[in-house]
Structures are given as structure tokens and as C-alpha cells.
Amino acid sequence: MHPNQRLDHQTCFALYSAARAATAAYRDALDEIGLTYTQYVTLLVLWEQDGRTVSELGAALHLDSGTLSPVLKRMAANGLVEKRREGEDGRRVTIHVTAAGHELETKVASIQQRLYDAVDMDPDELAALRKLAQRFCESANNLAEPTTEGTSR
């Protein structure tokens, strides 16, 4: 076996394992306040900018509407978000955080701090890790996009 084929040499596996570990760490803490990880990140996006469309949320979260729609439906049933029809003809649907959804902000901040404190990395290391992960995602997404014949990247 070539050394580069070893599992512990695979960047993709390190990222996969890190994502699973991060999600698992959040899962237990989020269970305490009744959120899934996907609901948590959806609230983060809406707290940044309330009143986004489903497609805007999907783009921000890198989720398709088939994945996001049931999440939003559950969040609405739990009273965390509401859908509003906007525009003159009511065709534009936006998602808004309810008062109950806003009440979770303090609890989420506490969870974030608790997990941040538990990670054995300093702020600079975490910032570098985040920046590298974001750069990796951008590069990998570029590889996954189909190219048009005759155009170069």
C-alpha cells in the first residue's frame, strides 16, 4: 500500500471525522434545548438576517430545499419560526424567527461558550482551522461544479 493511501493521511477523512465530532459535541448540548444541529445553524443564519427566503437559507447553509423544508416545517410547528407571504402578489415567502426562537439566543450562546472552552485549541488555532476548512470547501465545491466545454478554470 502506498503511504498516501493510508486512512490517517487522508484530508477528506480528517475533515469528515472533525465534522462528526463537532456535530456530536453540539448534539448533546442542543438536545437540552430541543434543537437539532440543522435547526441550530438555521437559527444562526436567521439571527444574522431575519426574513430570508428558503432559497437564501439553503444557499447560506449549503442545503437543498428538499432537506431544508422539513426542518423549517418542524421549527414552525415548534413555534421557533414562521413563514410570511410578502410582495404585492404574496408569492415571496420569507422565514422569520418568532419570540420563542429569539429566546434561545442566550441559551445557544451559553452552549457555544461551553463547547469553545472545552476544545483544547487557542482562538488563533480555531480561526486558522475555520479559515482553512472554508477554503477547502470552496475548492472542493469548484471541483464538483460541472465545467462548460471550451471554458477553462
Describe the protein in words.
With 153 residues, the chain is mostly helical. The protein has one domain: Winged helix-like DNA-binding domain superfamily/Winged helix DNA-binding domain (Arc Repressor Mutant, subunit A), CATH 1.10.10.10. The protein has six helices and three strands, in the order H-H-E-H-H-E-E-H-H. It has helices at residues 11-31, 37-48, 54-61, 65-77, 99-118, 123-144, and strands at residues 52-53, 81-86, 92-97. Strands 1-3-2 form a three-stranded antiparallel beta sheet. Helix 1 crosses helix 5 (99-118). The chain is globular. The model has no long low-confidence stretch (mean pLDDT 89).
In short:
This protein is mainly α and 153 residues long.
Tag the structure with descriptive keywords.
9% strand; 153 residues; 3 strands; 63% helix; Arc Repressor Mutant, subunit A; three-stranded antiparallel beta sheet; mainly alpha; 6 helices
Q: What is this structure's SSE topology?
A:
Elements: H1 11-31, H2 37-48, E1 52-53, H3 54-61, H4 65-77, E2 81-86, E3 92-97, H5 99-118, H6 123-144
Antiparallel strand pairs: 1-3, 2-3
Helix pairs in contact: 1-5
